[in-house]
Design goal:
By secondary structure, this protein is α+β, with helices and mostly antiparallel strands. Helix content is 39%, strand content 17%. Helix 4 (56-68) crosses helix 6 and helix 9 (183-196) crosses helix 10 (225-248).
Length: 304
């Protein structure tokens, strides 16, 4: 490729890295960003600089919240031409401007969000937890001298509640998935937000888990004292790491040194349908050479 062709492609692709850089110290710490530092400081910095693009699961989750929490919403049915509704064009731009304060759903998204929200309403205990208290109210507070911002789904002086979707709401599988997603750290962060801001002294934390596909079963889970304690420790560790990175203005990735790539001699295993199958030893000499673990089916992106 010639230099002129490269230049033409760069112009078509648009600027790269020319956006004004945001100083992370000026942005209140939100849990959705804080947990990124559990991956690496670089992931936190990127989240602050670029935020996130709304995905279909996120939009559907916003729709469920709107229906359950009586927030403004509307349905985009298209430009009236009879064609499939798309989120672009002058008609869409005008519709989006006119409904800037509403959750905008397609008819398909509304149909599914309605089914999920109705399933939650039918579960008496779940609906009770989600309706008794202040819902989705922002909280500004400080931790270790650092400005933070939180928005629990539901809070009252004695408890906080979060609504989550999942591919499987069976308690054991959901708890395993929730640990991987650091839900216990999220709820511990929200408990401290309420306490530190003087809005109450909650000591209980609940998750209402609803499956995102029919028949939409709902499970209520209460976090144990141990889960909350470990969640608090995780948040403290992440926040201390964040403060150190901000002080040094240094945002490394996973490692600064070389990492080893090795194959275990005897301890290799493959996870199949939740069961660990050994690949090591003489009995497995003819086993496939792959050493990858299957990703559990329920680790897909949550709706909310």
């Amino acid at each position: 490729m010639s230099p002129d062709e490269q230049t033409a492609l760069d112009i078509m692709a648009g600027p790269y890295g020319d956006e004004p850089e945001i100083d992370p110290r000026t942005v209140p710490v939100r849990f959705s960003n804080l947990k990124r530092i559990g991956q690496s400081p670089m992931h936190y910095w990127h989240a602050v600089q670029h935020g996130y693009e709304e995905t279909l699961p996120m939009r559907l989750g916003s729709g469920v919240h709107a229906l359950l929490f009586d927030q403004p919403w509307t349905v985009w049915t298209g430009s009236g031409t009879g064609k499939k509704p798309v989120r672009n064009g002058k008609v869409w731009d005008a519709f989006e401007r006119d409904n800037i304060d509403k959750c905008i759903l397609s008819i398909g998204e509304y149909r599914k969000a309605r089914a999920i929200s109705e399933a939650v309403k039918r579960k008496e205990r779940a609906y009770e937890l989600l309706t008794e208290g202040v819902r989705e109210s922002p909280i500004s507070w400080t931790c270790l001298g650092r400005a933070c911002a939180s928005r629990p789904d539901v809070r009252n002086p004695g408890r906080i509640v979060e609504l989550k979707s999942t591919k499987c709401a069976e308690p054991g599988r959901f708890a395993r998935d929730g640990r991987w997603r650091a839900y216990h750290a999220q709820l511990a962060f929200y408990l401290d937000a309420v306490i530190q801001s003087g809005l109450g002294t909650p000591d209980r934390a609940y998750i209402v888990a609803v499956e995102s596909a029919p028949p939409y079963p709902v499970t209520v889970l209460r976090l144990t004292e141990r889960a909350i304690d470990i969640g608090r420790r995780m948040c403290r560790l992440w926040l201390e790491q964040l403060l150190a990175c901000e002080a040094e203005e240094y945002w490394p990735g996973y490692l600064e040194s070389d990492a080893e790539f090795d194959i275990p001699d005897e301890e290799g295993s493959l996870i199949i349908d939740g069961e660990t199958v050994s690949l090591g030893g003489e009995a497995n000499d003819n086993a496939p050479s792959t050493m990858f673990e299957e990703v559990p089916e329920d680790t897909d992106e949550q709706l909310f």
